[in-house]
Design brief:
- Belongs to the pirin family.
- This protein is mainly β and 240 residues long.
- It is 0% helix and 53% strand.
- The protein contains no helices and 22 strands.
- The protein has strands at 4-7, 13-16, 20-24, 42-50, 55-61, 65-72, 74-79, 84-88, 91-96, 101-106, 114-121, 131-136, 146-151, 159-160, 166-172, 177-181, 187-195, 198-200, 203-205, 210-213, 218-223, 228-236.
- The chain has a seven-stranded mixed beta sheet with strand order 1-20-17-22-15-13-14, with no helix packed on it.
């Protein structure tokens, strides 16, 4: 396929802080790769593992849409807006940092790891009022199909952000195929394999591989293993 960028799992940036083991698809913190700054407005895709009882102390963000997707275990969230909650597998968390937010994220379990994706999206509006939201999705609704988990519209399924972006998650049996149609002209889609393997077009993708595709109306994906899980992130390709 033309107009693609392929990021194999083993080529990602890696930082092991002991309590935190993080793989960076795009440049982040001490990992800087000028060829991997972003995919359109998708700025950060971190695959994090947090040890029991450890976490991120209170720290600030501004003018970024931040999405957390737990993959295993629980993550306790506190922020300066008064939010104190826990997110777990099946939940989707979103923060619009806007004019500024401070928060902490901890694995409060004493006996098990927490694994989650941390995703940053450049917003299409700056200096919005900060907000927090989280929802619990019915994971059975993504069996052999794509379940929408994020959009620009508060009335749609999933959480919403200040950007013309749509996220979908799916869990597929071997040889099940589906098409994903781009929702807005000028958008591309970044596919990230959570578990198992897929083909997109003629490209084989394995666990934690990422593939960005743009200048297309649709992509076709096919599971090539059982219990294959994928996250699709459709985002504008033009930075505002």
């Amino acid at each position: 396929m033309e107009n693609t960028v392929l990021h194999r799992a083993e080529t990602r940036g890696h930082a092991n802080h002991g309590w935190l083991d993080s793989h960076h698809t795009f440049s982040f913190a001490s990992y800087h790769n000028p060829d991997r700054m972003h995919f359109g407005v998708l700025r950060v895709l971190n695959d994090d593992r947090v040890d029991a009882g450890m976490g991120f102390g209170t720290h600030p963000h501004d003018n970024m849409e931040i999405i957390s997707i737990p993959l295993e275990g629980d993550l306790e969230h506190k922020d300066n807006m008064g939010t104190h909650t826990v997110i777990k597998k099946g939940d989707i968390q979103v923060m619009s940092a806007g004019t500024g937010i401070q928060h902490s994220e901890y694995n409060r379990n004493t006996d098990k790891l927490t694994k989650f994706l941390q995703i940053w999206i450049f917003p299409n509006k700056r200096n919005v009022t900060p907000r927090y939201d989280q929802i619990t999705m019915n994971e059975t609704d993504r069996h052999n199909k794509l379940q929408q988990v994020l959009s620009p519209n508060p009335d749609d399924e999933g959480v919403w952000i200040h950007q013309d972006a749509w996220f979908h998650m799916g869990k597929f049996d071997t040889d099940v195929a589906t098409d994903y149609k781009i929702k807005k002209e000028g958008n591309g889609v970044y596919a990230f394999v959570l578990e198992g393997s897929f083909t997109i077009g003629d490209i084989q993708l394995n666990r934690r591989d990422g593939l960005g595709v743009w200048n297309t109306d649709a992509i076709n994906l096919k599971a090539t293993s059982d219990n294959a899980e994928i996250l699709l992130m459709e985002v504008p390709m033009a930075l505002r």
